[in-house]
Amino acid sequence: MSGGYVNPENASSTGVTVGFVSKYIALEGGDGSGKSTVSAALRTRLEEFGASVVMVREPGGTPLGEAVRGLLLDSERLDDWAEVLLFAAQRAELAREVVLPALQSGKWVVSDRTYYSSIAYQGKARGLGVDRIRSINETGLDGVTPDHVFVLDVDPARALARQDRPDRIGGEGVEFQAAVREGYLDLGRTDSKVSILDGSLSVDHLVDRIMETVG
Ligand code: TYD
After folding, report:
1. Residue 187: helix, strand or coil by DSSP?
2. Most buried of 45, 61, 157, 185, CB within 10 angstroms?
3. Mutate to test the pocket of ligand 1, among 28, 31, 112, 181 (most ligand atoms within 8 A of CB)
4. How far apart are CA 111 and CA 56, in angstroms?
5. How many structural domains are present in the chain?
């Protein structure tokens, strides 16, 4: 989806714009990294600049996605590859049903997680192989991939302490979260779409950094 779609209407009344091309932006990070708060603040900032914004989350965002979310996060146990494929399946549905139509109508899309989560959690932390997980997901997405990916990098122990009710994957413990973090840091070194941000910065500061990159 690189390049996005032209939206001639997203100039604000003050004449300030966020650029004429809508974009697909992903927020990523370990459990408890603060993505949801930053996504909401980013939405507000983009709207102040006249953009229409569609918010999505993974797993979820469609009826199928929300049903699969329950299976993924509430099951007592799940085979590792079943986990991978369920994440990928809900993601393909979301891409075609929600993300692509939004971009085609000139809207920005801000996503709380994308397939970069699968690369870090399933590929790296579960040890299933980052290349295989990337390839399975990119096959299902068929080009509907984020333009920019921002990882909120936080200390895993501190982030876990912020969680009051961890789900099945969030409850895997601090070593697992440390491996997830390594997965994201590797992506920051190897994938030009990925920016690693210091998650201990204020929300405003983080949104400033994101806007500098996407605006
Ligand atoms: P999320 O609802 O974002 O939880 P949190 O806000 O606590 O980070 O994500 C749910 C869990 O699913 C989280 O532990 C990360 C995990 N996950 C994967 O393991 N792979 C994936 O592809 C995705 C999207 C999420």
Report:
1. helix
2. 61
3. 31
4. 5
5. 1
DSSP β-bridge partners for residue 124: none
What is the structure's pLDDT at 15? 44
Pairing relationship of beta strands 21-22 and 5-6 according to DSSP bridges: antiparallel
CATH number of the CATH domain containing 202: 3.40.50.300
Give me the pLDDT at residue 17, please: 52
User: Tokens in use for 174?
Assistant: 């601090």
37 C-alpha to ligand 1 centroid (Å)? 15
With a Cβ cut-off of 6 Å, ligand 1 is lined by 31-32, 36, 58-59, 73, 87, 112-113, 117-118, 121-122, 167, 169-170
Mean pLDDT per segment of 10 residues, for the chain of length 215 residues?
A: 43 48 95 95 96 96 95 94 98 98 96 98 98 98 97 94 86 95 98 98 98 93
